[in-house]
């Protein structure tokens, strides 16, 4: 069951980034939308976020539960040394969700709507920023298991150039994901061209941030170049991501939204694979070299077996329910559009 549990862990992280990342990206898109187009953009965002935003954080919860139950040493290490960025991440998730609900369902429209808007867009930016910082910190080699000062134990593991660069790269990827997904939500050609323009801008920013990640990795002595380009799987993933990016822009002009959504999801998957494969099964890289491996620091076999079966059986009930949730929201959205016409 070890392979089953690890697979579910990786897939839950991936799905949280693909779905939750696009959710965060919608707020980032709104942040950089002009006041002239903001009302129309928000309407499109509501229709796009509605089917998935209720269930997005389920993937994060699953990943946390898997770590807590199946890999308690890794869970406790990350919870202790990265508790500051994790706290900011959780506060961002809470602030964003409440602001989204209040600004949409508040019966009284007054000056508080502007407060809700600012909380929503800034938490949409800050949350993926710290999500990326946490991800970068796990492999930065800055976590000191024998730290004897507050700074070395709780600050330096995440407050470094590499982790921050990964954070901004994550923000850019979320914006790129959202812009590409939203192309298919546009109701007219003008809106479609606007989201294509935003996707191109986000793509350019993501490339720049990606370059900065490699520069920061060299500055902080993180062997990112070796992980990505020194391994056949990593190199193949980079090539696949590059080819999918080219195809994405080809199919954008062919107006095949389903294909471009699949291509951008595939591209992000390849990026995560390129970064994570070379140091697998080490999930946490430490300063001493005593890395925390998913194989070495796993729970007893009986625990992993129970967890594996729970994940498999749970999928039988959860996945159909998620598909039905998405179907119900899409059906309602289409009915509302038809009624408005």
UniProtKB/TrEMBL annotation:
Transmembrane segments: 6-32, 58-78, 84-103, 115-138, 158-184, 205-227, 233-251, 258-280, 306-327
Listed InterPro entries: Cyt-d_oxidase_su2
Gene Ontology molecular function: oxidoreductase activity
Keywords: Cell membrane, Membrane, Oxidoreductase, Transmembrane, Transmembrane helix
Compartments (UniProt record): Cell membrane
Enzyme Commission (EC) number: 1.10.3.-
Annotated membrane topology: Multi-pass membrane protein
Major location category of this protein: membrane
Family stated for the protein in its record: Belongs to the cytochrome ubiquinol oxidase subunit 2 family.
Protein name, as recorded: Cytochrome d ubiquinol oxidase subunit II
Organism field: Chryseosolibacter indicus
Source organism phylogeny: Bacteria, Pseudomonadati, Bacteroidota, Cytophagia, Cytophagales
């Amino acid at each position: 069951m070890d392979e089953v549990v690890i697979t579910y862990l990786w897939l839950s992280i991936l799905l949280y980034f693909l779905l939750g990342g696009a959710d965060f990206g919608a707020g980032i898109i709104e942040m950089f939308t002009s006041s002239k187009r903001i009302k129309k953009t928000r309407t499109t965002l509501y229709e796009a976020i509605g089917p998935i935003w209720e269930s997005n954080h389920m993937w994060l919860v699953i990943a946390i539960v898997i770590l807590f139950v199946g890999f308690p040493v890794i869970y406790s290490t990350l919870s202790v040394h990265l508790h500051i960025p994790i706290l900011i991440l959780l506060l961002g998730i809470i602030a964003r969700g409440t602001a989204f609900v209040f600004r949409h369902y508040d019966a009284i429209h007054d000056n508080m709507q502007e407060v809700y808007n600012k909380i929503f867009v800034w938490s949409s930016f800050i949350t993926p920023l710290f999500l990326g910082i946490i991800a970068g910190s796990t492999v930065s080699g800055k976590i000191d298991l024998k730290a004897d000062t507050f700074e070395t134990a709780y600050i330096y593991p995440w407050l470094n150039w590499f982790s921050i660069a990964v954070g901004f790269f994550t923000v850019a990827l979320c914006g790129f994901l959202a812009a590409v997904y939203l192309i298919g939500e546009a109701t007219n050609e003008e809106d479609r061209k606007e989201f294509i323009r935003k996707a191109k801008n986000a793509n350019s920013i993501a490339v720049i941030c990606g370059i900065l990640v490699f520069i920061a990795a060299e500055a902080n002595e993180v062997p990112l170049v070796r992980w990505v380009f020194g391994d056949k799987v990593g190199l193949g993933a980079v090539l696949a991501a590059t080819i999918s990016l080219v195809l994405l822009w080809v199919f954008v002009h062919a107006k095949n939204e389903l294909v471009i959504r699949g291509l951008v999801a595939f591209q992000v998957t390849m990026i995560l694979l390129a970064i994570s494969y070379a140091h697998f099964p080490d999930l946490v890289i430490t300063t001493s070299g005593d890395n925390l491996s998913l194989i070495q620091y796993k729970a007893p076999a009986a625990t992993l077996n129970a967890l594996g079966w729970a994940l498999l059986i749970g999928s039988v009930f959860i996945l159909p329910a998620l598909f039905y949730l998405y179907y119900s929201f899409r059906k309602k959205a289409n009915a509302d559009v038809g009624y408005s016409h």
